[in-house]
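Q: Structure for this?
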Amino acid sequence: MTAEPIILAEKLTKIFTSRKKRTRTSFTAVDGIDLRIEPGELVGYIGPNGAGKSTTIKMLTGILTPTSGTLRVAGHEPQRERVRLARRIGVVFGQRTTLWWDLPLKDSFTLLQRLYKIPPDRFVANLAYYTEALDLGPFLDRPVRQLSLGQRMRGDITAALLHDPAVVYLDEPTIGLDVVSKHAVREFLSDLNRRSGTTILLTTHDIADIERLCSRVVAIDHGRVTYDGSLDALRADRDLETVVRELYLGRSLVDTTE
Amino acid sequence: MAELSPRPVDERPLSGPVAYLLLVRMWSKSASQYRVSLMLTSLAQLLTTSLDLIAIVVIYAQVQTIAGFTLPETLYLYGTTRLAFGLSDLVASGVENLATTIRLGNFDLVLIRPVSSLAQALADQFTPKRFGKLVAPLITLGWALDTLPVQWTVLKILVCIGTVVSGFVIYCALWVLTGCISFIAVDAQEVSNSFTYGSEFATEYPLQIFGRPLGLALTFVLPVAFVTWQPSLYVLGHADPFGLPGFLRFASPFAAAVLSAVAALAWRGCVRRYRSTGS
């Protein structure tokens, strides 16, 4: 049985237009991306700032409506079936928290149980598992505003996973974390992918995240795919950092002639 | 932790009203973490909403009627409008934060939840202090109803209740529509306030004191006049000083229904065109 890809994008495009004093300006953030991700893959999605990574992820989650192209995630059309899709995906924005600032960490989790209709036994089991795996025990009862960045990130990751999502998007999950927290987060994500077969799409600027976690790398620049292949092929000749720098500087490793 | 990710058993999303109540409970809990602040701001809300009430009473100490309306009649208008607005403020004024939410890019976080975005926007930063705004209108309306020389019939009671309910719905729809403006112009909070707060001020006073052109404009441009003016003319037994047809006295619920539908459609359109910000 060949499984359907969990993420399938064809000629995915997003053009932002803005009107200022009657002059229309448009900006193509994502320019005809093709992407096919199978269930259980752990893919690193990289590219310089402004390359279109976040815009792509926002279309994959249904936050933004694509200008053109087709897109399916976990059998849903993201923007049109946003609410249904939301039950099947988890999202972590490294620079933002979805937790309730003034309330104890575990209150955010109990709210999510209700919002996502997580069956009680499932919720209890998952929370116990993540509390153990991410060592949340010592601060479950503390208001989120009192948590360190590393603790909060672990809380946010748990919040994105409690409902057993089939796909998880992590947007710079290790940003600003110290070495120990980074390591803990990486180990956890690797374990999650291996144990539960959760598909993970990860954006990061941290080479070590990619080396440790991703078997496949997709690079984009100016809204176009500049590399899509295995990590090993990417670093076959030279060290990863050099290749990534070249990609960031605009070199393309895919055949773009059509 | 299971070996695979099963599809959720119950595929139907949580209903909007249930999600709304859950979020309201969370925000209330958040607000009550700062108990003293909550108590003081509730008191402040109670006092500030009583100020224009005092102004009305002071004016009537000098004159018998304004534009043919006695003090209890004016207080009936004031009470029903304020109550309708206070209830909408309680339930829906969370959309006021939308401009900030959108500007900071945090509306993204709303859209990743499997519940109605409108329910989340309405519940945003709910605080129990808003109950303070209901005290003055309830007392005022109670006094007005007790004092008015109105022969109450079943129809008049229904129209009276309908006034508050329709007003509440119309104001909620206005809140949503002004929230939509935030999607278009992110720094639009001030523009929005001139719609909601401004129109509330207008309907508290007998419309006639604003003169015919403005009165007509308020009746049709903004459906605010339906909130209390038209149905109250019926309850109080006044002829319409502007001479508008009689069926308008009973048109409030229809105006409320139409405006809600418009607001719901506008909201859907805005969310679809949401642009997000930054990375």
